[in-house]
Design brief:
Length: about 375
């Protein structure tokens, strides 16, 4: 009887030691979870959560200790001031990495706080080139930046849609940054920018701007901004009888823009560009099905990239044998992680190497990649 009690005690002791060996590692996530862009923000956060759940299900051991990853999600409301407040909260929470932010306007100021704290940040979607031109060694992104997307969109516009282009942006770091790159590339490709107008990322009435655009008779209207503005703008383009083709960057390459535009969006009239390859052509073509099963929602835009950002940083931790940013950072810089969207490798600035750009057209009620 005594031997049995001793044996049971030893087993219990062993279980207690095993439990004590488990380490909780916090990974921060920041995106707009409320407001007009909440559908995109939740999509981004859910990509992080799915990657963490997959890692925990497989079981990860680092430095001889079992690791349980935990997501600390924050709502930055797509607002730069809120973004910096969120960044400080994540630093104070002791996160070992941050996946975010979603918008360039929140990501750039937040990156300075993460840099000062020595925390790795990987954005799944902030495409303004300035982000990785600040000289911060711990800041990365897993999506091609606007220095590539702008010229790709401009080349398509001038060669396929028409040489006279009107450019509008929402004055956000993302929208204006992409429009600037697009405008430069249009001129370099032999096109003409008929007018350059701007609005805000909160506006919904564009009639005054579009009336001026109509007087210029452009072949193409390019809007640098997000779908909450892009959808209503498409409607108002139709209301004014403007015959120009409508083109956006990744901020408009969403099911939500189609929903917001309603009957105003027609085949042969609307296009968008998106960094990366089409969802169905990604190395993990089953991602969208797994995502839908888990969250009962379709992929909007950025969840494959937030998933890859998360799994890449976890891979670097495993390679380095440490969850501390200063120790796994060298491994992250050299990583070649085969992700959902492709192989994740970073250049010396922290930008994604070999990032593709895909052009989409509105066809059969959805965005279809063009051949």
């Amino acid at each position: 009887m005594k031997k049995t009690i001793i044996a049971l005690s030893l087993v219990a002791l062993g279980m207690g030691v095993a439990q004590a060996q488990e380490v909780v590692v916090k990974i921060g996530s920041s995106a707009p979870l409320t407001g007009a862009q909440a559908h995109l923000g939740k999509d981004t956060e859910n990509g992080v959560r799915l990657a963490v759940e997959d890692a925990n299900a497989k079981g990860v051991t680092i430095a001889g200790k079992k690791v349980k990853f935990e997501v600390v999600g924050e709502d930055d409301q797509a607002d730069p001031k809120q973004g910096t407040a969120v960044a400080q909260r994540l630093v104070d929470a002791g996160v070992k990495a941050v996946i975010g932010h979603m918008n360039s306007g929140t990501t750039i100021p937040a990156s300075r706080i993460y840099n000062q704290a020595g925390i790795v940040m990987i954005s799944p979607s902030a495409t303004n080139p300035t982000l990785t031109q600040q000289g911060f060694e711990n800041i990365f992104r897993v999506m091609a930046h606007d220095g590539k997307q702008g010229p790709a969109a401009a080349k398509f516009a001038v060669s396929k849609l028409g040489k006279k282009v009107a450019v509008i942006d929402d004055r956000s770091a993302y929208g204006q940054g992409l429009a600037d790159e697009f405008e430069k590339a249009v001129k370099a490709a032999g096109g003409t920018v008929t007018t350059r107008e701007f609005t805000t990322d909160k506006a919904t009435d564009f009639m005054t701007i579009l009336t001026k655009v109509k007087s210029q008779n452009p072949d193409v209207i390019f809007f640098g901004g997000m779908d909450p503005q892009g959808g209503p703008m498409v409607k108002q383009v139709k209301q004014l009888g403007i015959g120009a083709k409508f083109l956006m960057g990744d901020g408009g390459c969403t099911p939500e823009l189609i929903k917001l535009a309603g009957d105003a969006i027609k085949e042969g009239t609307a296009y968008c560009t998106q960094p990366g390859v089409p969802l169905d052509s990604m190395p993990d073509a089953k991602f969208k099905d797994r995502f839908k099963k888990r969250f009962n929602a379709e992929v909007q835009a950025y969840s494959p990239y937030s998933y890859d950002a998360t799994s890449t940083v976890i891979e670097a931790m495993k390679t380095a044998g440490s969850v501390e940013p200063a120790k796994y950072l060298p491994a992250l810089k050299k990583v070649a992680h085969k992700g959902v969207t492709g192989t994740i490798k970073f250049d010396e600035k922290g930008d994604l190497k070999d990032g593709a750009i895909t052009v989409y057209e509105f066809k059969a009620g959805k965005w279809e990649p063009m051949k």
